[in-house]
Amino acid sequence: MIPILDMVQGPVRWLAGDGPMGDRILSTRVRLARNIRGTRFVGRALEPELISLRDRVLDLGLSISALPGANAMPVGDLAVMDRQLLLERHLISHDLTGDSAVRGLVLAGDEKVSLMVNEEDHVRIQALAPGFQLEAVFEAAQKVDLELEAHLSFAATPELGYLTACPTNVGTGMRASVLVHLPALVLTQQIKKILAGVNQVGLTVRGFYGEGSEVVGNFFQISNQTTLGLSETETLTKLSRVVNQILEWEDRAQENALRDARLQVEDTVLRALGVLKYSRLLRSEEVVGLLSAVRFGHTLGLRNVPSVSVLNDLLLRCQPAHLQRAAGREMTAEERNAYRAELVQKVLEVRDAPRFDP
Amino acid sequence: MIPILDMVQGPVRWLAGDGPMGDRILSTRVRLARNIRGTRFVGRALEPELISLRDRVLDLGLSISALPGANAMPVGDLAVMDRQLLLERHLISHDLTGDSAVRGLVLAGDEKVSLMVNEEDHVRIQALAPGFQLEAVFEAAQKVDLELEAHLSFAATPELGYLTACPTNVGTGMRASVLVHLPALVLTQQIKKILAGVNQVGLTVRGFYGEGSEVVGNFFQISNQTTLGLSETETLTKLSRVVNQILEWEDRAQENALRDARLQVEDTVLRALGVLKYSRLLRSEEVVGLLSAVRFGHTLGLRNVPSVSVLNDLLLRCQPAHLQRAAGREMTAEERNAYRAELVQKVLEVRDAPRFDP
């Protein structure tokens, strides 16, 4: 068994909050979908074939210089909780948390670059970084891609580019995404209009936290929809331009909110901080909303609030698997709510919170 | 102009929180309705007649030893804000805040005993004290009553007792009431059943704060409904017995709440404290609810929460006229909400609250 516990105990590098525009952009991600020429797609291949492919890629992953300090593991060997932990750190996809025996993961020591094996495609290269840095993240993924290509022959045609299991990825096989915080656009109810506009230029925006369609915490993931017809660089340039445009709108919405409803904004931010510091039970989705509100205060120049790094760290560690790993045991939702509140108050160094005698 | 400003700046004695059972009973009140024999009731008399009566009672009030340090004033001479201030301190009734020229007030220096003149009846004697002390409060009112009777002849018959403008007060003319805090009975949804039962034994319970029928802050006023057929002492004994019974039920409900839903109760209490300490805007009714929740924590043994005296003081000073008096100017509701939050945080000595740069 791989010592996931030790490996993923601390904060994640890509959520460190110290990247460019880190107070408004949580992270940038690029993933490249690749398939091995002459091997059937994951959905069609037989298990022995896929296991053999998995082991070959896991071995190869350990030798790649662009994946320093890598660990390689068959995902099926991991405990359910460990898989959940990796999912919460965005290191594997939801598809990869299942019990399938064929799946694998290679993870660089700093968790910034990883390879998923036999998820939807044979190989998915993922790179993550804190803040807004599309080029750097693309380069990190590309380095792994080039090293892999020296050993593997990827399925591609001159007309289409890379071939993938799902037609929506054919071409570059690249999905680049930026995780942005847009509290003022939500507050001023402009977000719907903007989401619609973004869709029209071939990009996708969706709420990041929260089940289903409900947006929690004003976090949005903006990514390219198309992989055909534009080169990687053109795609990144377009995504970058749109993100910058949205940030300008967000800036204007913030100015308007402060001008027209300053006290209400301050009240929302400060109440959120009060609840984080004092509550005894914090639900998973509620804490995302509260952390979002406090982050908004930070962006607006509120003094004496937790730093973006601390807020990001809490966003990560308040998730169910992280809480249970920290507690060293499985917990019911109610137990997690209590443990989550304690964790938040420990991290925020709340010293004066009243307590009942035990 | 009477210097109401100086007189009513500080905390009120009857809300000091140091009375018997002060954590659960805010205050006890007794008022006696009296009318002058041979003078028509207020609703029927002519203005000159009432003004003459008023001046006579105001003069008399200043000489009564049971009203030490008294101030006497025609209420119509007071500024609207001062009348509102007296109403918020429960020193005059809502009826007495109008512009009528005939009304008067005599107020003991400690605000515990007062005379209202030409409200519904010619004279209403009121005594207030912190906590649960029906006998002491009745005695304080009775002393004033006896001294007044030495100079005034009160309308009464041997069969009916004291005659009053409204038939519901005929007899003793006494209304005794106890202001209790019943958070656990509200939480466990038993309060409705109890209110119904109390009505059946000739007592009245009504929510104390909040407009209309909505109960705010779990404060209830329990008082006698009947003034005929029972002596003052019998009435007080009955009221006392019922209040004690209700407090026992409240105790049991608290035990149940702590046994079955301890974390939820703690969470409610602590969140309320967090919002009081951090919010930037506090509405009038909201603050009553929050103070009620924190008081509940105090009753349950929460360490490191504001004392009952502080909570009572805030209950008083967060009211609109008190806020405006403290600010020295009239304020809109929104301005009051901001000022209220500042006041609460000053009183609670919140030092670490984040602030926006001005």
From TrEMBL, chains A, B:
The record's GO molecular-function terms, alphabetically, read: ATP binding; creatine kinase activity
User: What lineage, starting at the top, does this entry show?
Assistant: Bacteria, Candidatus Eiseniibacteriota
Q: What is this protein called?
A: Protein arginine kinase
What keywords were assigned to this record?
Answer: ATP-binding, Kinase, Nucleotide-binding, Transferase
**BP term (GO), one:** phosphocreatine biosynthetic process
Family to which the UniProt record says this protein belongs: Belongs to the ATP:guanido phosphotransferase family.
InterPro entries reported for this sequence: Arg_Kinase, ATP-guanido_PTrfase, ATP-guanido_PTrfase_AS, ATP-guanido_PTrfase_cat, Gln_synth/guanido_kin_cat_dom
Chain segments annotated as transmembrane: none
For this protein, the record's Pfam families field holds: ATP-gua_Ptrans
Phosphagen kinase C-terminal domain sequence ranges:
24-253
What is one GO cellular-component annotation here? Answer: extracellular space
